[in-house]
Fold these 2 entries.
Entry 1:
Amino acid sequence: MKLYLYILLFLIGAVASIRAQGHAGNRGGRGGFSLANLSASNKEIPDSLLQADSTKLNSKRITGYRLTPILGERYIAPMDTNRLNFGNSILVESNSLAVGYLANVGSPAQTKIFSERQEERDFIFADAYDYYITTPTNAYFYDTKIPYTQVSYTTGGASQSKMDRLKGVLTLNFGKKINIGGEMDYIYSRGYYDSNGNKLLSYRLFGSYITDRYELNAYLSNFNFVNYENGGLTNDMYITRPDELAENQRNVDSKSFPVRFSDTWNRVRGKQYFLTHRYNLGFTKELEETDEEGNPKEVFVPVSSIIHTISYEDNRRRFTSQSNGIDTCYTNIYGIDASLNDQTSTWNLKNTFALALREGFQDWVKFGLTAYVTFEKRRFRLAAQIPGLDYGPNGNINTLPSSLNFPTSEVYDEFTTYIGGELSKRRGSLLTYNVRGELGLAGSDAGELRITGDLQTKFSLFKKDATIKAEGYIKNITPAFYQRHHHGRYHWWNLDLKNVQRIYAGAKIDLESTRTRLSGGVESIQNYVFFNSEGLPEQSGGNIQVISARIKQDLMYRAFGWENEVAYQLSSDKSKLPLPDFSAYSNIYLAFKLAKVLTVQIGANVYYHTAYYAPYYEPATQQFQLQAEENKVKVGNYPLINAYANFHLKQARFFIMAYNLGSKFVSPNYFSLAHYPLDPMVLKMGISVTFNN
């Protein structure tokens, strides 16, 4: 039946293409429409012919774009070229209104705004690095008229706690059709606390080939992340109440604060190969304008597309330690090795085939329609379970003789077939929408369902754009593999978890005339999976609701600027899903020019959220779990204040910042997660240079 659907969709597109060519002629396209030849003139291509991957005409020398999930539609995405707030953009806090992490850039992190959290990967150990991992939906591709290079370097702290980050991208076009490039991100941060350093390296090589008929985007990426783990402070009083400590414990360096363990680290590695390409069927259409020779200009209009997307991922995780006392930090020990050496690996291969009927190839075609099928194969390798031994919650089997003959690992295979479709209208301003549905038809995820959609209208208010958008989804999701299975020295589980049902409805209002953004929504979650205080996955039998509301208001008058954002969220079960009630951000500054060439921004910003029982980061599972009742503490009610000066001179941006000024004059309670403090006051600086001429 699905085969008939694809054939019917393809035939409709082909017939429409032939019919359109019969009316428009069959001349060779000299000025075909693609991202490679976007013009600065809005008159050259009528709005009715603009495609979803190029909703705006761009006259700059370089255009950056990203791809939509699964189908790989291109859309123009803003690049990092802001003259203001450059210093703030390098902070981990800039990724969310409220975020919990382990003080260092590059350390595991989780947003405290529930609506910003993504679905868990099967390889959940990578979830804590969402801000540093490239995926097909956040990867940039480029179209350049000249070679483009951007390099940035940031640093902070003294020699024993120095935090360095070097990022760079280089891309260039070979003619109008081909673009290639590469990017690199290297983080080396020693940290302000014992055994708190990070070393992260990631790189990506990418390319594209864009013509009227054929479009291709591809990349290969690799990352190797090493995080030294300390398990957090054993005594928070070193920060909150140092005056109550013994005299020999006061005024000690932060590197001397006692931590849970040392000489322990997690290494997470991954690589990905991604390619999406399509062949477009269509016709050329003559425009009213003529070229220099007096011939009518022409544009290629795609009618239907044949799409193929393939991706391969390989991920590995190792948790190891040279500390002799780390076993005393955990209740259960399931490994038979003499020391900690947890290892696991996984790979998955995904193929998607789609047929699309394109929007707008004729005036009466007001929407686009796509149908697709996806085949996914996954393999997971875990430590083997020894027959006859008890792997229950009170296991302790490390006394077994090493002469036992048993398999070292076991393999789990999963295979799933999905079918899906998308109905969209992306052109025009009065009404646009997008609805996508996907169903697990057979295999390990049979019955899994995702339906997402949004509806948007745009109108003029005080001569500027105003947008109202409604959005929502219905999901029936299979829990991630490593939520169902994990074999480690300190945690071992094989669980039969039910599917998680999630329903969300929300709306957004964007008023450009008043610089106001409003949003709100409500989400209902059935069978929510969380990590309890023992570090084990647990499934809530009831229903949890999360209500959220958010407002962003910017004020600007001449050189004065004031940016503000406040979010409210309410969890119906804070014992299983703890969230801060209020989170806020405020940034006040003066921005002006010196000698007409140097832009200067001087100001201060503050991050704040109300106190709540924040999660604890557990190194053994790399998950954010509930706190243990006997050592429960609240995190929050502390203003993270940063003072800065940003500068922009031609193609260079640079800054200097005093981070966490509040630690000097506000009650010291600067914890980001339970028992994980932020860095004390530190001076940070950085520079970013763009070469595009």
Entry 2:
Amino acid sequence: MKKIITAMICAGLSFTACAANHVLDGRTLTVDQLWEISKPGETVSISKDGFARLKAGYRAPITAAEDGRDIYGLTVNYGALKEKRVTGNGVEDEPNRSATIRFNERQMRIQAAGFEPYFPAHIAKMAMVIRVNQMATGYTAMSEDAARAFMEYINNDVTPLIPSRGSEGANDLSMATHIGLALMGEWDVMWKGERRPASEVRKALKLKDFHPFGLDGISILSNSNVAEAQAIDAVKKAEKVINFSPILIASSLEALNGNVTPFLWHTVETKGWPKQHEVSELVLKNLKGSYLWQKDAKRYLQDPLSFRSAGYILAVAKNELDMAKEVIGQAINHASDNPIVNTNPRTDLWYSKMPVVLENQAGNDKAFVNSCANFDNTQLAIRLETLTRAMGQIMHASAWRTTQLDDGHRTQLSTYLVAPENKGGDGFANIAQSMSGIYAEGMALTNSVMGYGVPTSIGIEETFSNVNVTADRLSKISDIVAEVYAYEVLHVTQAMDIRVRHEGRKLGDGTAAFLEDYRKVVSYVDTDRIFTKDLNKTYMWIKGLTQH
């Protein structure tokens, strides 16, 4: 009851009035929590244990450098320039401290090379929150000053302008660099709905100057946080469309006078696919009270597969969605840095005392600084591509259901769903051709883009995952599925209305509400008319049910 009352109070206030502070511990952040934090007004802090890990992680490479080790991105340069020294061993002492700051700031500038459009504010905010959460893991070696600088922007809803194009998906050099530049006051940000120079915003908020020190530089620019934020945005968009699907499938069955038996528990049990029971029950729940539960001598025994298989196909998408969210959850609670710091290593493995292992110790046997490829995103890219293909199957079934509803033989209604009132009309005679073009755009997005790339850093970086591209394609196909759904909704509601008005059919509780709500946006087609406005209104209606 307390939660309900709080929600009612918040509903009547501005979006910041009931905003919450979220404590990040580097261990338990979820995709859904991060999605909530991305809203304006939501703030973050780091847990006590997370802060302890952050400080230990920062200290490890500093100590390793003091012991004479070359530390990539700290005492030596990046990539093909890794033989070039940046500082002496005592990096916290002058002139080494100033040298590492100059190096980090220069790297921010030279790596900034992306293309517009810029990501929306909520993606930029998520990217920063992910980085702060990963600081709390202790794996990034970033400084307390960096954590403070990130949280100042997050907690004041200052979001750097981050180019959305220009990453191979192994790390986000050209993207994440702009976060660092904005923290330095050398780039533009969005603040209070306006694009502003970061230097002006920092002055207005009276923020202390930030100069990336030590491994702050490489930890800010060489990671996958922007890609992870982009993936979350795409996955949440797909999730909303998937969640809209059961009511549409149920409505399509009523439009067809279809058979509910493929969705019954004792039918689904014989297949055993993950999520299939869940999906089927969601579809049937909307059909409580529907005429479909009554015998009908005119009803066909076998519906077209686009109706019969709808539950199977949606179950796949739901399962792929869960797996994508699980992988992203792992990513945001670990790190995508190179080098990596671990101050809680295992020392009981067969190779723990090997010389090559021990030489990577940083001052004590509980701290290691290792080379790695933690920015590899193959697992995430595969999950996003698989979910994209599942969305393609959803779209395919929707498109076919729409064409089946145009067939009077299938529906035993008029061909093209011409209303009985529409004497001499043509109804939906040719708009499926328009849908076919949209469908083709969507299916083209289901092809794999992983593995494409040009070797960089003089050939040392020659693997690619293109997770940013896979996320973008998932986002686009989710929009296109909503467009194809717009055609189906237009057809489905027409058929439902005809059955209610002219056959006296009773709709299900959920589907009747669905029809009633839709009719507030698009009217029954009782006279031939232009459908462009109807389709666009329908698309926006669907998006209204599936927005952030």
